[in-house]
Specification:
The protein is α+β, with helices and mostly antiparallel strands and 75 residues long. 40% of the residues lie in helices and 24% in strands. A 3-stranded antiparallel beta sheet has the order 1-3-2, with helices on one face. Pfam families: AtDEF-like.
C-alpha cells in the first residue's frame, strides 16, 4: 500500500511538472538618467542616441535650479 502511494505521488508530480509549460522570461527593468536640459529637442535627441529611450525636460523646477532632462529607458 505504501509503495503504491509513493508511486502515485511521483506520477502526480511528473504530470504536474510536464503539463505546467511555464517558461521563465526575463523582463527588462525601467531605468532613468537625468542631466541639465537646454532644449526639449536636444533632450529627446540625447536620450535617444545615448540610451535608446524617451526624454523630456522638466517644466516644474525649483527656483535657481536648472531644468533637468529626464530620460527613461529599458536596461
Amino acid at each position: 500500500m505504501a509503495k503504491s502511494s509513493v508511486l502515485c505521488f511521483l506520477f502526480f508530480l511528473l504530470v504536474i511538472s510536464s503539463s505546467g509549460g511555464a517558461r521563465i522570461v526575463a523582463e527588462a527593468k525601467d531605468c532613468g538618467a537625468t542631466w541639465d536640459c537646454t532644449t526639449e529637442e536636444r533632450c529627446w535627441d540625447d536620450c535617444r542616441s545615448r540610451y535608446d529611450g524617451k526624454g523630456h525636460c522638466d517644466y516644474r523646477t525649483h527656483p535657481f535650479a536648472p531644468r533637468q532632462c529626464n530620460c527613461s529607458y529599458k536596461c
